[in-house]
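Why does residue order matter? Because the sequence determines the fold. Keep that principle in mind as you read this record.
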Amino acid sequence: MLVGPQRLPHPGCGPARYGTTALGTQWDTLRAELQRINQTKARADLSPEITKQDAHALNVIARGMVPEAALRPQAKMYVELYENRLTSAVTAGENAGYTLRHDYVARQWIGPLDVDAQGVVRLQRTLPLNRDWKTPDLGLAVFIQQQTGDVLQALAMPLGQ
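Structure:
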């Protein structure tokens, strides 16, 4: 499952920490909405494939299909190579002295890619890998969404597993 920019924070930051405050209620609402979304049938099919070309490149093939004709004109596919477990040492400001941890940092972003009249979209590309990236912490996310932001299907696959 792909969880986008609205991902849940690390343990200890949720409603248990804040009790039954308004923030706790917001977490309950978010959990209910995520559960509803995850039980909804996807309105597009995705099929990503990744092969390592060499130590410095990945071959990526991403195929998508939008079966419902009415959704096709506004549907776009996006492909993202991301990296987890990054850190930043903060040296100034209110967070000085802290180390921040980052997950799902976009390293490469491809799209929007149009869905054709038959409902098909396909990408085949070699993605170069920067020497500073930690290959075991990389992953690929692929999603198809409407221009309104309504996501038809999303997948994420870590490369290091």
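The domain at 44-158 is CATH 2.60.40 (Immunoglobulin-like).
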